[in-house]
Amino acid sequence: MESSKQEAAQADNLLEGNRFIRACLRRPVDRTPVWFLRQAGRYMQEYRDVRKHHTLVEICKQPELAAEVTITAAEKLGVDAAIIFADLLLPLEPMGLPFEFQAGEGPVVHQPVRTAADVAALHTDRADELGYVSRAIQKVAAHFGDRLGIIGFCGAPYTLASYMIEGGGSRNYVFTKQMMYGDTASWRHLLDKIGTVLTEYCRQQIDGGADVIQIFDSWAGSLSVSDYRDYALDASTRLVRAVQAMGVPVIYFGVETTGMLSAMASTGADVIGLDWRQPLDEGWRAVGHTRAVQGNLDPITLFAPVDVLEKRVREILQAADGRPGHIFNLGHGIVPGTPVENVQAVVKMVHEYRP
Ligand code: CP3
Predict the structure, then answer these.
(1) Which residue minimizes the CA distance to atom 3 of ligand 1?
(2) How far apart are CA 136 and CA 105, in angstroms?
(3) Strands 106-109 and 99-102: what pairing?
(4) Which residues have C-beta within 8 Å of that of residue 225, sequence separation ≥ 6?
(5) Residue 78: CB within 6 Å of ligand 1?
(6) pTM beyond 0.85
(7) Could you tell me where the DSSP H helices lie in 41-156?
(8) Is the CB–ligand 1 distance for residue 299 below 6 Å?
(9) What is the pLDDT of residue 8?
């Protein structure tokens, strides 16, 4: 009863709803919604100012700061959605795997997961320790109301497992694939455990006010399509379905995924994130037009002269061809050094575009 009441309330919201959520559901919009992967980050002076006094993890763990960083970036850019400031790796800590960000090195997990015993030792009952993320979302939601879409996020089981096993970023994913192929029972156990924690974590974020959940399978492209299907797809699918059952749309994103888009779409995600390596219309065809897509400007195009930038932005919008269900974004995150005014210019181009 309670849940059907919630569903009705949600449906009403969507009718008035903002254009970002409408586009996730492939409903018609007045103009294409736009936001950017890593829109709050080092390229922005306001973020660098906060970072002078706090580490990345401190910002994530203080809801006041995380909300401020989220809100400042979204307002400065004039985008249609705000992604909560957090990090993919936060769930590792309550699972029993401390990590840190080492300057210029990216994340380091001190005791990587390599054996069945390591997998067995991981906790799955401490997701409430991540409550600072949902408290930050509450503050962002209170600030924006229905004006912007609010995006919660988590990593996909495969991508998070790769960090846990490699102990950080990786080039060849040798340890990950060794466990995947050689000790498939532990591999599946690990993905199950990650899925349990992420499901609870997403529930908290939705309760906090997230309108949409984006699942980052950033490194799915390190897998062949066969390996993706045999070793990663099922865990992603279960997470996608569990989040959808909580009543919000899911965006499922990966990089270098040309050739695996139809497999990714088979998770049932509402929106598939496309990187920039193939034209948006080709990517959308591979995904299937029964799904929405998000993308797919090369983030480095933001360093180009504005006429070149405009040409590429228009190509993407033209490739979408006015079909409901396109969310303009980059193919991957904004990098340090990106001129903020070019990011703002893209927002203007997208908002002013008429087919
Ligand atoms: O606006 C936003 O997108 C900010 C929120 C956000 C962060 N990380 C903050 C962050 C999001 C959505 C993430 C996701 C994330 N984190 C991913 C998936 C997205 C992707 O890029 O595919 C991954 C792989 C991570 C793990 C991670 N976090 C790495 C590998 C690094 C180091 C690389 C780098 O850019 O320095 C981080 C650090 C990190 N997380 C930064 C930010 C803004 C860098 C800035 C800083 O150190 O303050």
Answers:
(1) 38
(2) 27
(3) antiparallel
(4) 259, 260, 263
(5) no
(6) yes
(7) 45-53, 56-61, 63-77, 116-121, 131-144
(8) no
(9) 47
Q: In angstroms, what is the span from residue 106 Cα to ligand 1's centroid?
A: 9
Q: Is the CB of 43 under 6 A from ligand 1?
A: no
**What DSSP string runs through 174-213?**
HHHHHHHHH-HHHHHHHHHHHHHHHHHHHHHHHHHT-SEE
CB of residue 75 inside a 6 A radius of ligand 1 = no
Determine if ligand 1 sits within 6 Å of the CB of residue 41: yes
Residue the block writes with tokens 């203080």 = 62
Per DSSP, the three-state class of 285 is: helix
Measured in angstroms, how far is the CA atom of residue 39 from the centroid of ligand 1? 10
Stretches in the chain below the pLDDT threshold 70: 1-16
Tell me the C-alpha distance between 8 and 16, whole Å: 13
Cis amide prior to 18 (ω within 30 degrees): no
User: Cα 151 to the chain's mean position, in Å?
Assistant: 8
Ligand 1 centroid, distance to 290 Cα (angstroms): 30
For 222-274, the pLDDT digits (tens) are 999 999 999 999 999 999 999 999 999 999 999 999 999 999 999 999 999 99
